[in-house]
Amino acid sequence: MDNSGIYVGLDIGTTSIKVIVAERVKGQMNVIGVGSERSNGLSRGVIVDIDKAATAIQSAVRQAEEKASIEIKKVIAGVPANLVKIERCRGMIAVADESKEINDEDVQNVAAAALVQSLPPEREILDVIPDEFVVDGFDGIKDPRGMVGVRLEMHGTLFTGPKTIIHNTRKALEKAGLQIEQMIIAPLALSSLVLNDGEQDFGSIIIDLGGGQTTAAVIHDHQLKYTYVDQEGGQYITKDISVVLNTSIENAEKLKRDYGYADAQQAADDEAFPVDVVGQSTPTQISEQYLAEIIEARLDQIFDKVKQHLDEIRALELPGGIVLTGGVAAIPGITDLASERFGTRVRVFIPNQMGLRHPSFDAALAVIKYQAALSEVALLVKSALTGESRASVALDFANASSGQSANQRPRAEMPTQTGQPAQSRPDETEQPADPNHKGAVERIKGFFNHFFD
């Protein structure tokens, strides 16, 4: 499947909103437009003022539209992992066709059956991923369409999140005049961008160091197994600098970006720079090392909390190590500091696309790559969440194969359209996870046996 066409990724972060427009042609993803706007109406990764957030999103989208020379109507939005729960789901149906040949409608029906579950009123289904299909007892099937059988089962992974977070995201995008093509959990998307196939298979940890919060995600067997969110991020580092040096937040942010080091041992004690101090008429000279000590103290606190939760599930034993993403990951020396604190291999992922060579763009780029890589059967399963018709899914794939897209025509030819928020099914069930990680080393098996027992 080609999946060519225009993709628009949206990352709604606490400190900035990123929009990336990319064109996929013959398997090659080319970025053709980028928008970045300072966030408003967000706190710790969550939209708390819908109108302010919608205005900021509109501004970032306009920037991307001008650079890409298109009008953006549909976006792939990343959502934070706050309070996300990972559960197993299972559905079973009788094949409807008289010939007993499994088709698209059967896949949608078995996915809908897997989603018939009881949820607390404050939670909503975010995503569902098919792990395997079973046809008349034969398991391990990735795409059952075209096969003949009487009974079709689907075993999958279900992600649920707080209804407030999901609703506010949808409402802000609706007010911004945008349709949601897909909502993707940020760590799930990041795994497809920052990890190679071996790292996703044998197990790795992604730590997203954002402005408002830090998210740790454990990936194993190509699946998201665990998430932990610490409500501290780059904003806390900036506030620490502001308080300790008695300078404004704006000055503190500039100092962090221009002179900051994550590891005080790498900073020079004899290199100084002026700092405007509140209540003083002349700037005060501050050394690089002193600034680094302030930054390192906060990062130590964040890393200690994350490590404590990762140690509880023995995730640091995974061979893939840690990959750092997010804007804070750009601070010099952070790799060495994290490696020392976590006791494992650490690297920072930086996109190689021109104009995006900064880890703050990882999340917006990740949702594009994740969506473009989805198989047709995976999209059919996801359509059960929204009740999207089989014909509509088929049309989307026809458009993708021919290179057409709702975001592709020139702006002058395209009417403005306000999208409707996707509706999700109200019911879902919870089932315990059953790890079966073939070929993994014994210590990795022990980790997941300990985690899922």
UniProtKB/TrEMBL annotation:
Residues 7-194 form the SHS2 domain. The lineage of its organism: Bacteria, Bacillati, Bacillota, Bacilli, Lactobacillales. It is a peripheral membrane protein. PANTHER family: CELL DIVISION PROTEIN FTSA, CELL DIVISION PROTEIN FTSA-RELATED. It is found in: Cell membrane. It holds the Pfam family FtsA. CDD domains: ASKHA_NBD_FtsA. GO terms for biological process: cell division. It comes from the Bacteria. Keywords: Cell cycle, Cell division, Cell membrane, Membrane. Belongs to the FtsA/MreB family. This is Cell division protein FtsA.
